[in-house]
Write a structure and sequence with these properties.
Strand order of the largest sheet: 3-2-1-7-8-10-9
Shape: globular
CATH architecture: 3-Layer(aba) Sandwich
Largest sheet: 7 strands, mixed
CATH topology: Rossmann fold
Number of helices: 8
Structural class: alpha/beta
CATH class: Alpha Beta
Length: 235
């Protein structure tokens, strides 16, 4: 996945990454390690993760933190805190999931602010000439709502999203529903990577899925004129 992600960042000339569900900044630090030098806007509502995220981002002039959750509509909502902060979610964990993932045990709830991709877009890309966006969404069961909050944004050229093969949160959409939504918006798959398995170590619970839009004809003409390679994803 790291190789495919790096290839898409370069192939699509990404200059803004929307890091939705940033936790303490693991994804942003990973793409920096891959060589991505453009803008990062991290969205994270968890009061436990925010102090660490802000401290890490403060050392990077091109990294912005927004202390909100993204959803289909703006407002406020109950946010569930779990033993492991990377499991914090707008969704409660299913009872049978906590036996398999002890860090899913709920410890508290807080009220958080909800925004949307559409509302956050102008500020996120302010000052960028011809924004080309990678949307990364890892919101523990809320990714379909994140996508619903920003439909029809052609500047989003690639999406990295968590896909659920087996639900571990209440109301969590299936991977096929999320994939259908992305394909309806013109995205096609690039790569998939399992990120968690059931206790039998065989059945997959969650994937990361990387999707991108095909470049339009004007993009291809410009790239050919510049001599840039057309087959960067070819092994």
């Amino acid at each position: 996945m790291d190789w495919a992600l790096n290839a898409v960042l370069r192939d699509q000339s990404v200059n803004c990454v929307l890091d939705v569900g940033a936790n303490v900044g693991q994804f942003a630090q990973m793409i920096r390690a891959l060589g991505y030098a453009g803008r990062i806007v991290s969205f994270e509502p968890s009061p436990r993760a925010l102090p660490t995220l802000r401290a890490v981002a403060a050392r990077d002039a091109s990294w912005i933190v927004r202390p909100v959750a993204l959803a289909a509509e703006p407002g406020v909502a109950e946010f569930h805190l779990h033993t492991g902060s990377d499991y914090d979610s707008l969704h409660a964990a299913l009872p049978n999931a906590t036996a398999q993932f002890p860090r899913l045990t709920e410890v508290d709830t807080v009220t958080v602010t909800l925004s949307t991709l559409a509302l956050e877009y102008a500020e996120a890309v302010a000052g960028l000439h011809e924004p080309r966006i990678l949307l990364k969404s890892d919101t523990q069961g809320h990714d379909l709502d994140v996508l619903a909050g920003g439909p029809g944004l052609p500047q989003v050229v690639a999406v990295l999203v968590e896909l659920s093969a087996q639900a571990i949160y209440e109301g969590q959409p299936s991977m096929t529903r999320v994939m259908d939504a992305l394909q309806d918006e013109g995205f096609t798959p690039v790569a998939f990577q399992p990120i968690s398995h059931a206790s039998d170590n065989l059945r997959i619970i969650e994937f990361d899925g990387l999707f991108m839009r095909p470049r339009d004809s004007s993009d291809e003409t410009a790239r050919q004129a510049s001599g840039a390679p057309l087959q960067r994803l070819k092994g």
